[in-house]
Amino acid sequence: MRENYLHTHRPREIPQDLNGRIVVTSYTIGYIVGSISSTSINRRLAQALESLAPDNVTLVEIPIKDLPFYSTDFDADFPQVATDFKQTIKDVDGVLIVTPEYSRSIPGVLKNALDWAARPYGDGAFDHKPVAVIGTSGSPIGTAAAQQHLKAILSHLNAPTLGQPEGFIQSHPGLLTDGGEIADDTTAGFLRGYLEAFTALVSRYAAGEERSEARAA
Predict the structure, then answer these.
(1) What is residue 57's three-state secondary structure?
(2) In sequence order, what are the beta bridge partners of 169?
(3) Total domains, the chain
(4) CATH, residue 108
(5) Domain carrying residue 125
(6) If we measure between CA atoms, which residue out of 162, 84, 76 comes closest to residue 125?
(7) Which residue from 38, 130, 166, 210 puts its CA 20 to 30 A from 199's CA?
């Protein structure tokens, strides 16, 4: 099992109200599973992440299995399923993509979903949307090659993407139960830290900090 841990943290100011009480903001993070297989281990990983999310975070699935193959023929008249898909991405505070690795890249069904999200030109759903990517496979490097390709696509879509920690989870028998539970305490602890790091990124964009810093620069 290979996992990259975050060793340094940028100090964050804890929000408080006028009486000095800590304010806890709730976030909704959508997750996309890059596989439509009924036995997908990445779907089990997504379910595990749901159960490990911080108390102020709700994870909801953004399904992709009903999206037709994208074509520019649809740009003038989007099908409702694609319109709903894009709107859901726009409505959540951040998006977590849980991807398998097929032939050293992302699955075609996931690339198809990203193409729908990006079109028509000028109306991309991922623009300024915080995103994190993670995935699992039986390989010692998890889904590292797929994630690098995915991050390149997200960069083009102008989606700020979590850099560290990186989630390269090596799956082995018994690690992920059918109910989406993590049997290994070390892996569960890593995933909690991963979600906390992503929540910190989401909170910065939700508060408008990143856009303000960009304008100041």
Answers:
(1) strand
(2) 136
(3) 1
(4) 3.40.50.360
(5) 27-161+169-206
(6) 84
(7) 38
